[in-house]
Amino acid sequence: MNKNILILVGGNKNPLKPFLVEGSKLGLNVIGASFTELSYLINSDSKSFCLKVGNKDLKYFNLIYIRLVGRRFEDASLVADYAHKNRIKLVDRLPLAKSLEMKLLFEAGLPVPKTVFSSLVSVSEDLSNILGFPFVIKSTTGKQGHGVWSPENMEELKRLASELKEKEDSGWRFISQEFIKAGVRIRVFVIGGKAKAGLVRPTKWWKRFCADKPEKSSFIKVPLKYALLAEKAAKALGIDVAGVDILQEDSTGKLYVLEVNSAPRWASIKKDTGLNVEKEILEYLSSLV
Questions:
Q1: Phi/psi at 214 (nearest 5 deg)?
Q2: Domains by residue range for the chain, with CATH
Q3: What is the residue-level pLDDT of the chain in tens, covering all 289 positions?
């Protein structure tokens, strides 16, 4: 049986080249494409709807892996609908807003920082009472560490709320979280429900409570306490290929799930651990078809 796999990205296709190389080695028919290559035609003579990538009906593929959506949410939604109606396996799910992500993690019983989803402008004083200073504010659509702030007092909070008012008025939403005093962030890479490798990196605000900058490290065999938590977090959100960020509080050792990224970058994982990420992902995808 031929295994035809389509991998979609929101922009440049160059990052997909390693998938094509590894797919050939594994005997898979892997095609990489951009969402811009999607098309359909509807007219009165059509008997059925056909969504194509290039000149191929998506029904040609046994499985579609959405590697990166970017700003192509409309295209990704169209693919997801077509895949569902034509019983094409789809990996991964569309990105979740951080507000919904935290809710689902909490409902799954996973340890997460104390979190408030609200308007910054109207409840700034309440936020400081609930979370204390400092605390962390995140845009619910922020990417790769952007859209993150940490006021240390009421003056900073009021100034920040004023600066962000225009963004709130235009539709931005924010979550606010307690500040976890952790010198490092542990990123665990999960594929198909299994922790494969991990990185340890200094947190954004390590200088607030660490005399020296924490050292970077990595591991190909993930310590059990991190592996189990990361696997549970990815499962709770239904994400097959995930980068799970974990904080370990310095004073207590308590673990918190900070974030689950459904489109993680893995250049550092490959460089520091030697994990062949594309091969691992394709082997998992192949097992599904």
A1: -60, 145
A2: 4-91 (3.40.50.20), 114-178 (3.30.1490.20), 184-275 (3.30.470.20)
A3: 679 999 999 888 999 999 999 999 999 999 999 999 999 999 877 778 999 999 999 999 999 999 988 888 999 999 999 999 999 999 988 888 899 999 999 999 999 999 999 888 767 778 888 999 999 999 987 555 568 999 999 999 989 989 998 999 999 999 999 999 999 999 999 999 999 999 999 999 999 988 999 999 999 999 999 999 999 999 999 999 999 999 999 999 999 999 999 889 999 999 999 999 999 999 999 999 9
